[in-house]
Design brief:
This protein is α/β, with parallel strands linked by helices. The protein has 2 domains: about 70 residues, no CATH class; about 210 residues, Rossmann fold (3-Layer(aba) Sandwich), CATH 3.40.50.1000. Helices cover about 40% and strands about 15% of the residues. The protein has 11 helices and 12 strands. The strands form 2 sheets. Strands 5-4-3-2-1-10-11-12 form an 8-stranded mixed sheet, sandwiched between helices. The protein has a 4-stranded antiparallel sheet with strand order 6-7-9-8, with helices on one face. The longest helix is centred in the N-terminal third of the chain and has 30 residues. It is elongated, with a radius of gyration of 27 Å. The structure holds ligand L263DTV3. The ligand O=P(O)(O)OC[C@H]1O[C@H](O[C@H]2O[C@H](CO)[C@@H](O)[C@H](O)[C@H]2O)[C@H](O)[C@@H](O)[C@@H]1O binds next to strand 7 and strand 9.
Amino acid sequence: MQRIGKKKKLRRMTNQQNVVVLDVKLHGVRNVLPPSSLTVTKPFSAQDFKMLLMKKRFETEKAGAKINAWVDSMRASSPTRIKSTASLPENDEKTSWIVHHPSALSMFEQIVAASNGKQIVMFLDYDGTLSPIVEDPDQAFMPREMRAALRDVARNFPTAIVTGRCRDKVYNFVKLAGLYYAGSHGMDIKGPSKSCKYKKGNQGVLFQPASEFLPMIDEVYQALVEKTISIPGAKVENNKFCVSVHFRCVDEKSWAALAEKVRSVLNEYPKLKLTQGRKVLEIRPTIKWDKGRALEFLLEALGYANSKDVLPVYIGDDQSDEDAFKVLRDRGQGFGILVSKVPKETNASYSLQEPSEERSLILACVKEFLRRLVDWKKLSQRAPAP
Ligand SMILES: O=P(O)(O)OC[C@H]1O[C@H](O[C@H]2O[C@H](CO)[C@@H](O)[C@H](O)[C@H]2O)[C@H](O)[C@@H](O)[C@@H]1O
């Protein structure tokens, strides 16, 4: 056994003592110490103590600033209006926006003309696009006429529903076979087998790029349910590969408290990130996958990877749909259509909106666009070849 000199032994004991004192006296400071700090090799000085306090204060301020930033964007989250240009009155601002993002209904002829010789592939978001925004996420049913319009679209064009929702849940709302369903922001893709490159036997395509996160998401869901139970109106939704924390029914005074609770859970999971939708905080794996990547995957699955013979059309209303709009813009192919009643910063080319405050009227525009597309397809099939 190695003999330790008396002096050395004493120093070791002193150092050990320092560590213990640090734990007991500084309480919260322990959290800022990396595990390696528990083997301190020199006595803990007053200067070290001061530094630790400063570090702790800095971390607390940083966390506070983060929460403030979260709450600011929570306030802006529904709808995310374009930052007002001080020089433009509201009406001029709207006019200038509509010039850059004209109505997809008024530009309908140009849109279908661009599809000449190409296959139109339809991508549709669910909440706020096919169903109206309602307070209870479990009650976001798709209107009957919308389902009929969607059924016709899917009979005439390859069609995908791309949503932040869990795939099974959105299927239960839509209840239509023959479509592709991309749930969990595209991290759970399933579709019919026909003309599909990735089909497994007769099962059709199934693609889940975040499957390893499943246990972690379940754990986080449980933790969030427990943490947020004290906040009236907060609702946590398990979307399989991501989790939604809804604050639509939470009093604005409690938003900071809710954000703090979500942050404290998320701090334990560096492999998860936070994004925002309409009055919802979304927790997702940090993998490079989103609705845009899902759109590209689906085009490839349909055999249009690098093809010029396709015209993808994506209709959506939310921040997460911007990833898909951007893909289309970057490819210089197809069109993004933003559903919104107010001007928003967007990568979409067109908009579907009504000046009215009535949300259902906006959805009427989506339905109208889908109907016109089907009518045009039927007519063009009947037209004699030139
Ligand atoms: O990609 P989406 O289909 O738009 O899904 C995004 C989120 O949609 C749902 O929440 C939104 O709609 C709810 C029902 O109208 C509304 O109560 C909520 O405030 C909206 O954010 C869904 O419940 C979320 O899980 C999705 O992340």
